[in-house]
């Protein structure tokens, strides 16, 4: 059994990558990261090429048909996830489908009555927490790529059992509550991201 296990909250990681590569007002496109060198980035931020097993968590998707707009939006997300999964598998990264994708309609605009649909991943953090609590034995090194503080109780539980923890955050956002309990903290920078974008 490998001494290290890497657990990635996929949407959390993608949000961080898109935020760092975007402007102050607009995040970079998701499409930019469907062919990204995730393994290379993780190896660089950890400083070695001994990643161990890497598990990338994402939601189970479904096609919503309530409106043409929502159907088009969910179909686009499904296509993007398929490309992402192919990229991850080519890099020997396991894609784990947990939770679900929820569609939520915004409140109608007071002036024009227009509404928008937003897609939210739900339950991915729970799946990741279950993995932490059931598959991380004493002495194992866990690398957590997530800024979700909902994972803090599960993190503390595996640390009490004797696991070692490295938390990976972003240069523009290191979560102190996770960083303070982890044995070490590493940071993804914009320059690192640029190096691993595939042309």
Features:
7-stranded mixed sheet; alpha/beta; Rossmann fold; 199 residues; 25% strand
Q: Describe it for me?
A:
The chain has seven helices and seven strands, in the order βααβαββαβαβαβα. The chain has helices spanning 10-21, 38-46, 68-90, 124-135, 152-160, 176-181, 190-196; strands at 4-9, 53-60, 94-105, 117-122, 141-145, 164-170, 184-188. Strand 5, helix 5 (152-160) and strand 6 form a beta-alpha-beta unit. Helix 2 crosses helix 7 and helix 4 (124-135) packs parallel to helix 5. It starts with a strand and ends with a helix.
Shape estimate: globular
What would CATH call the class?
A: Alpha Beta
Provide mean pLDDT, rounded: 86
Q: Give helix and strand order, one letter per element, not per position.
A: EHHEHEEHEHEHEH
Q: Please, how many domains? A: 1
Under CATH, the homologous superfamily reads 5'-nuclease
**Annotation, overall tally of beta strands:** 7
Helix percentage range = 25-40%
Question: Structural class, judged by helices and strands?
Answer: alpha/beta
Question: Do you know the CATH architecture?
Answer: 3-Layer(aba) Sandwich
Largest sheet: 7 strands, mixed
Strand order of the largest sheet: 4-3-2-1-5-6-7
Low-confidence stretches: none
- Portion of residues in beta strands equals 15-25%
Helix segment tally = 7
Whole-Å distance between the termini?
35 Å
Q: How large is the radius of gyration?
A: 18 Å
What is CATH's topology name? Answer: Rossmann fold
């Amino acid at each position: 059994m490998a001494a290290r296990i890497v657990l990635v909250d996929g949407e959390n990681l993608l949000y961080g990558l898109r935020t760092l590569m975007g402007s102050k007002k607009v995040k970079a496109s998701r499409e930019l990261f469907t062919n990204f060198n995730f393994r290379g980035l993780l190896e660089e931020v950890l400083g070695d090429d001994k990643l161990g097993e890497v598990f990338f968590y994402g939601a189970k998707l479904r096609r919503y048909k309530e409106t043409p707009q929502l159907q088009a939006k969910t179909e686009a997300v499904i296509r993007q996830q398929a490309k992402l999964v192919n990229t991850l598998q080519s890099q020997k990264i396991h894609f784990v489908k947990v939770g679900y994708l929820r569609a939520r309609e915004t409140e109608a605009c007071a002036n024009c009555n227009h509404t928008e649909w937003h897609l939210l991943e739900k339950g991915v953090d729970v799946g990741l927490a279950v993995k932490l609590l059931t598959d991380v034995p004493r002495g194992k090194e866990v690398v957590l790529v997530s800024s979700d503080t909902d994972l803090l109780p599960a993190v503390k539980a595996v640390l009490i059992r004797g696991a070692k923890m490295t938390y990976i955050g972003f240069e523009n956002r290191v979560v102190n509550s996770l960083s303070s309990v982890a044995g070490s903290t590493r940071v993804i920078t914009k320059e690192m991201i640029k190096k691993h974008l595939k042309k």
